[in-house]
Amino acid sequence: MRVLQGPACSGANDSSTRKGRGVASAVYGCPRAPSSGFSSPDAEALAVSGAAPMAATGIRRLGVCVLCGLPAAGKSTLARALRDRLQRREDPGWDCALLTYDDLMPLEAFNQPETEARQVAQHPLLSRWKLYRHELLVYLEHFLQALINGDHLYAPLNRTEATWKRFVSCFKEQGLISSEIHDAKSCHYLINATASRPLYLVLDDNFYYQSMRYEVYQLARKYSLSFCQLFLDCPLESCLQRNCLRSQPLPDETICLMARKIEVPNPEKNTWEQNSLILKSVECTSEDNLQVINLLATALENPEKQAEDNTEQKETDRAICAASILHQADQAFRRIVSQIMKDVKDKHICPSEMKILAEELNKLKAEFLEDLRQRNLQSNEFVTNTITSFQQATDNIVKKVFLLNEHTVFSA
């Protein structure tokens, strides 16, 4: 991989790999201040209806660019600079719209109750945050369907009203949705689909897990969109400093935990990540600028193909599904063990017995997880049954420890 060296990231405040298909991979980025930069169907119904190929409908070319990296790495700064640069382009000119997740999701997505936060301590912002991220993808799919088919945008039946309104307002402000409501009672919106210039949708979020980015890729593949990724690799210290300057900063431990868990795009392992760049330096030179534009242009000329009978892709999908199911089981096991230890502690069991119980429960958890890893996990129903079995097994261990404790007291 060719690396374009640059100075360390400065303290600009932010609101929130390999060669692939002819694009030489480079490492640059971590932008400066905002000014410099570049010189009604629901989800189930959408899945049933499928995607209409853009070539068949004569729609303009569409692309999705995923910006990913740690909080306060400079993603929003880069997104705004990229939008301004693309909109100023001539021959050919491109349209660009930003979806900044921090602006679209409500504050409650980032502020969990204490009891809930303890349950997901190993994975920050997992529950509510994950649900809202999924909801935004559903909204985006509704918009894409309306744009591609030349239809009205229908409000989903199952929606969070405040988040939906932010989503619609975001696209209204950028001229993609008409300010006029076609049918106020049923919330039908008119799509501005008359432009012929290519359109890039830039998604600005952390996307620190590969599986998060893969969800967007699946959406691009379903509708034959172009897909690419820009990963901002900014030093953790710089992100922490910038985060402190925010009006509503995240806890430092959350960012540090993300830094340990973040998954950099890996085109060697994941063919769907071929169109990816890792951005490292502060200054955006003309060569750097050209690298980004080349990435976007190459992705636009090579839209993703709708899924076929591809064994390799099926294996990738199956592995991701299995990892997700295994993760769900692990979290469930952790919650069960945590609750048991809390309940037992309230019964004033002596520390030595508490230690024995913790060791037995963790050993049991490891055995169950290893058993799951050896299986072809494709069903949540199977995991539900396994969690029930785990609960029963933990009950037996607790009873054994209680009997041991009672025997010890009796002997004494």
> What gyration radius follows from the Cα positions, in whole Å?
24 Å
From the helix content, strand content and strand pairing, which structural class follows? alpha/beta
Biggest sheet, spatial arrangement of strands: 4-8-3-9-10
Residue fraction in strands: 5-15%
The percent of residues in helical segments reads 40-55%
* Shape, per Cα inertia axes: elongated
N-to-C SSE series?
Answer: EEHHEHEHHHEHEEEHEHHEHHHH
> Count of helices?
14
- State the total count of DSSP E strands: 10
Summary?
By secondary structure, the protein is of the alpha/beta class. The protein has helices at residues 43-49, 54-57, 75-88, 101-104, 114-119, 127-149, 161-173, 210-222, 236-244, 252-261, 286-301, 311-345, 351-373, 380-411; strands at 2-3, 26-27, 62-69, 95-100, 153-154, 177-183, 188-191, 199-204, 226-232, 276-279.
Kindly describe this structure:
This protein has 412 residues and is α/β, with parallel strands linked by helices. The chain is built from 14 helices and ten strands. The strands form three sheets. Strands 4-8-3-9-10 form a five-stranded parallel beta sheet, sandwiched between helices. Strands 5-7-6 form a three-stranded antiparallel beta sheet. A hairpin with a 4-residue loop joins β6 (177-183) and β7. The longest helix is centred in the C-terminal third of the chain and has 35 residues, at 311-345. The termini are far apart. Residues 1-37, 39-53, 113-126 and 407-412 have low confidence and may be disordered.
